[in-house]
Amino acid sequence: GHVMWCLTLAEALTGLGAACAFLDTHATAPLLDAFATHDIERVDEAQTWPSDWVVLDNYRTTLDEEAGWRAGSRLAVIDDLARPHAADLVVDPSFGRDAATYAPAPALTGPAHALVRRGFADRRRDALARRGGPARRALIAFGLTDVGGITQAALDILLPLAGEVRLEVVAGSG
Questions:
Q1: Is the CB of residue 129 less than 8 Å from the CB of residue 117?
Q2: Which of 10, 15, 43, 167 supports an S-S bond with 20, CB 3.0-4.6 Å?
């Protein structure tokens, strides 16, 4: 999910005329091979790529490492765990998240800032019209891992609706 969020952001930014590059690692390479457009440059770990902004989306990055990424660039962090950051901007699309969570860094919070690929966003209006009423199915999927057991937390919230809504859960091996 993290690489896909970043690809979604990069594709939107390249559409606005920005040049974007991805750090090409053994973990990101297969996803970049499958989903990145030709407009997205790939750089290896040894290269330096001059940038105005660096975007990080990694649960394991420490505050010190974030501060290091800020040297010579502004830093945006994509987060959904409400952790402290050494960033110039935080993007957290979590429902109900308050920007004050990330103070003093400015934050774009809530579903209005979700990084949704254009293909999905373009089809939303038609999908809502086809549905014609309240939702009857819900998909619960949090990516390849279940940090903090949030799949179960989502199920606990949605189970009271199980008589009205069919719940489908997808979970990775992690």
A1: no
A2: 10
The Cα 82–Cα 54 span in angstroms is: 19
Cα pseudo-dihedral 100, 88, 58, 156, rounded to 10: 10
Residues in the chain predicted with pLDDT less than 70, given as ranges, are: 46-47, 174
pLDDT single digits (tens) 109-148: 998 898 888 888 788 888 888 888 877 888 888 877 777 7
Q: In what order do the strands lie in the sheet with 74-78?
A: 53-56, 74-78, 89-92, 107-109
What pLDDT, on the 0 to 100 scale, is given for residue 47? 66
3-state SS class at 91: strand
Residue 66: predicted pLDDT? 92
Contacts of 142 (CB under 8 A, 6+ apart): 1, 150, 151, 154, 171
- How far apart CA 56 and CA 78 sit, in angstroms, is 6
